[in-house]
């Protein structure tokens, strides 16, 4: 209505909320209009109902999935950073390891879960390791890229002053690869969710993936969708956290002024 | 009397081992202490290679390079370098960029923490010299191209090098900024002589007017594989004003150089 605020309404900032509300409204409308049965596509209202009805179970399983995802992601960050620095350090290591990593990354991680189950049994460990394996690759590649693309002139200036490889790494290479690293975290965290849920769907007795599989076998479609909804919410929150971290840590790399 | 500060004797350099590119061949030149020399030549003739030989970044395949009476076998830390691309680190302020060499050069890095204030004062003085007073706290990307190149000069000078190697440092700048920076370099060279620690400058450039305006002597290189085909002495008195560029003698020298390079381009030096 008649708004007399000092600032005009910020449509761009409101856009995500408006679009989300719009999506749910269209969804709700379509389900009602075509009278779709609950077991085909539940309306958002029915999903909300399921979330409220099964809240204790949903909450517990959401925490479990968040836990395995974050542990796997943390391992991927530590391992990816370390291996990325190693790969970026020397051309010899790069040449040797890169094809192996490409090959490994090409393996669908679904196929690895049964092996992990043989080794570690059903439970949190396969989920954590799957999240780790899938999130690891983009971090390594990005860190190594940051190191590999040091300007040769910069290297010459420092080498002429007597800099050792280590100096160049610490003064230039590592700071330089940080925007790549923090940028890769956004991709890695979403992949980590994929990994842990895939593993939970195959071999677990808790977690959102497990819950959705159980709900599906009982034809409780609204609960399946409730699980999806929780995954989306967790994914968005963690992504936003990584994006914020990226801005905080490497603001110098985003100097267009566009993003604040 | 004294031996030259830089001497290159009959040097070959081939990139990439047997059958690689022969960048320079039979290259010989000498630069006296305190001198300002320029190196001009067709593009790709090995000018940057010459810089890398003198600074010890590349080792000759044949012949010998000496700096300050020592054969060059590893990077020479009495040298400061600046390239066309200023390569400032965007995560450091301009001041911290300028201090970077001190974190590397052996004799400074051990003292840096204890004498930080002195070093910062020195960097501020240098910034003022090149016309960047008060810009130390700015990040490089907040500076224009010309200002970044000024900061780049400060970084090349902070560790008080005896030898300053400039590889087309003004190539990417507009004409007015370039002339301003010529004067900055001219004054740096002049003032260092006055203080008794004369800095020797080797300037690679493709701008012949720049070479004639700044240098005492100009080396003209042949097409690849590069060697010196002519050494021109510039007769103008110092200090030189920009006006000297509008005299007939100045234009005469520029003309001669242009003719030499045009000739070098069409007939590459013999061997491969
Ligand atoms: N690192 C390198 N590896 C192989 N060839 C090179 C390398 N650097 C320069 N060259 C070649 O050596 C020749 C001379 O190069 P350079 O010294 O950069 O020329 P200029 O600076 O005079 O333009 C060129 O033909 C160039 O392609
Ligand atoms: Mg060059």
Give me the secondary-structure topology:
The complex is a heterodimer of chains A (260) and B (272).
Chain A lengths: L10 H23 L10 H10 L1 H35 L1 H16 L6 H8 L3 H25 L3 H9 L4 H38 L5 H10 L3 H29 L11
Chain B lengths: L5 E10 L5 E11 L4 E5 L6 H9 L6 E6 L2 E2 L7 E5 L10 H11 L1 H4 L6 H14 L15 H13 L5 E5 L7 H21 L4 E5 L3 H7 L2 E5 L6 E6 L14 H19 L6
Parallel strand pairs in B: 3-8, 3-9, 6-7, 7-8
Antiparallel strand pairs in B: 1-2, 1-4, 4-5, 9-10
Bound molecules: adenosine-5'-diphosphate (ADP) and magnesium ion.
The site of adenosine-5'-diphosphate (ADP) has 12 residues of chain B, from strand 2 and helix 1.
Structure description:
The complex is a heterodimer of chains A (260) and B (272). Chain A is an all-alpha fold and 260 residues long. Chain A is 78% helix and 0% strand. Chain A contains ten helices and no strands. Chain A is flat and about 75 Å long. By secondary structure, chain B is of the alpha/beta class. Chain B is 36% helix and 22% strand. Chain B contains eight helices and ten strands. Chain B has a six-stranded mixed sheet with strand order 6-7-8-3-9-10, with helices on both faces. In chain B, helix 2 (94-104) runs parallel beside helix 5 and helix 7 packs across helix 8. The longest helix of chain B is centred in the C-terminal third of the chain and has 21 residues, at 175-195. The two termini of chain B are 37 Å apart. Classes of the chains: A mainly alpha (260), B alpha/beta (272). The interface between A and B is medium-sized, with 20 and 28 residues.
